[in-house]
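FAQ: What does the model actually see?

It sees only this:
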Amino acid sequence: MEVDTQQSDPFAIPVRLMDPPKQIFVERAPSLSERQIKAVEIYPAGNGSWGAIFLLDNSGRITLSNLSNSNRGRTMVIFVGTEKASRQVIDLEVDAPVSDGLLPIPRGLTYAEAIALKKCFPPLHPERRRR
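And it is asked to produce this:
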């Protein structure tokens, strides 16, 4: 994919959406990051991939609330990866305000990504210890 760098926004990068397939531009700097995740719940999705629900800290909750209020009808693109490489997991249409700080990714994670997320973040619903 070629982009005319003289005519494109230096703060945006082209991304091809998966469903429906189309090309859009997204901001280079993420609006939310892993630093704002307090906990995660991983679950199997119906299509063989994995899903997750992220609980964001107060800063992430406020950011998500602002994004979901001011960008209704737009697309939020979720990337998962390391410092060296990342992969687009899913694109979500912002259709309602989110004020509870919970960011769902209903599908698209690989098993390895799901396991890595479980290792990096505490569980959203920790299992109770039996006495």
